[in-house]
């Protein structure tokens, strides 16, 4: 199996390199290798905080709004610092442990990068 990306037009996996271009043998579509590398980066989800800063795994964030904990009477207060976050796919895109509450998921729109 090749390490080249599938064809953007017909989604064929049988692509190959030919003189700096990637070629699809099924539909004949050709594109530059540089564009293929950029499209691989574009496919990754970018998670941003409430102020537009890009978040990464292991970052620390601060909660910017009181958040009710579902199924409990406790509240995550404004200004609570959360260390060592993990980014995940889904509605709540941050997994973390909050001291005194435990493991939970947060939405990136309610945090700012610390």
From TrEMBL:
It comes from the Bacteria. Residues 47-114 form the Protein YjdM C-terminal domain. Coiled coil: none annotated. It holds the Pfam family YjdM. Residues 4-32 form the Protein YjdM N-terminal domain. Belongs to the YjdM family. PANTHER family: PROTEIN YJDM, PROTEIN YJDM-RELATED. This is Zinc ribbon domain-containing protein YjdM.
